[in-house]
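Ticket #4471: structure output looks truncated?

Reporter: J.K.
Steps to reproduce: submitted the chain below (438 residues) through the standard prediction queue, then opened the result file.
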Amino acid sequence: MKIYLVNPSRFLKDGTIEKAKRIFFPSLTLPLLAAMTPPPHNVTIVEELVDEIPFDKPCDLAGITSYSTNIARAYEIADEFRRRKVRVVMGGFHVSAEPEEALHHADAVFIGESEETWPGFLEDFESGKVKNIYGPAKFPALDHLPVPRYSLLDTSKLAGDKGFSRYFMKPVLSVQTARGCPQNCDFCSVAKFYGRRHRPRPLPEVIHEIRILGAKIIFFVDEDIFFPPKRARELFRSLIPLDIRWIGQALISAAEDEDLVRLARRSGCLGLLIGLESLSSQSLASMGKSFNRVERFERNIKVFRRAGIELDISMMFGFDEDGPSVFRETYDFLKRNHVSYAAWWPLTPFPGTALYERLRRQGRLKDEKWWLKKASTGFELKFSPAGMDDETFRRNFYRVYGRFYSRGNILRRFLLPPNNKSIFNILYSLFLRRTLKL
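Returned output as attached by the reporter:
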């Protein structure tokens, strides 16, 4: 069969489709799915952000992955393939939460992980016995996973391939060493999709995969690369001989083990994505994230800074305790602690989460199917917060977030002590400013 695996882009506020010249972090999902596709099937990966979807070329099957933020575009792509008599299957976080909705646009849908269900589906497809819904009987084991086929991507469209950027940017390939999250934050879909039990891959297989991929920069997509600490220590020691650089995700509390943080840096850690979410203990408790200790935030950030690890800190706004002053307070905190990068998000009720169900029961959702709206920036509130009206939220969010990524603040952040960072940090911040349209 000729199979297209498609990662959709998303609609912008004006209804157009977001496009880019380069891709920084190619998705792990489709290269892994391609590696699980047995020969002689022919697989093409389409990253719509940088590729055009070849609707006019012969195709037997289109597989489309999805998040809630791009599902409206995913459904449009699926409908166009089906109009052309191409069979369509869909999966991903959103489809797993809303399978019946997705079945209006697909011949079959996948719930959860696909290591066990994808090969079985291909056999059903060839025999003409496709079921509507495929879901694993249990969370699959993660040993003997194939090496993702990143070779199917158009390398000319990866960041740093050519031009001026090749001196500062290198393609970043994703690797997963474990699945599952023992936490249960009420806004997050991860625990429901991957389960709360931590399921590690055998470390020799992870190291083998990194060697085979040959990438110089790796993004570990695990929810917490420092969990559990004993395994993290073993992983970091195994990475040192590889002489790679890597980025990962972690809890801020990882800094409580300063020796482990220093080992992470020696193993090649450049930066970490960390979700503080709020500076209010009350807000953190309301979302089930009271394990984040506000009183230790500044101390923990200093541990990472002393180790030479950059932080990209995620903050959320729209909690019932939030008033208009929360934006300036957050800005002051980030500036005072010399945080290099920050991602600000409205508190968003994704389908299938406890937050979504609570707001739906309370009648506070503006639209129970908000993800079907095409014109969106991703920065709009999907519900009515208690502490401020929409206009106050929008005005303060953009004004203060824009100040964090103002050109003057970017230069001060990276040219003045205690940071004194490289030209890459400045260029990347300017890139973020442009893509965020702040």
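Triage note (M.O.): checked the attachment and the full token line is present. The chain has a mean pLDDT of 92.
Status: closed, working as intended.
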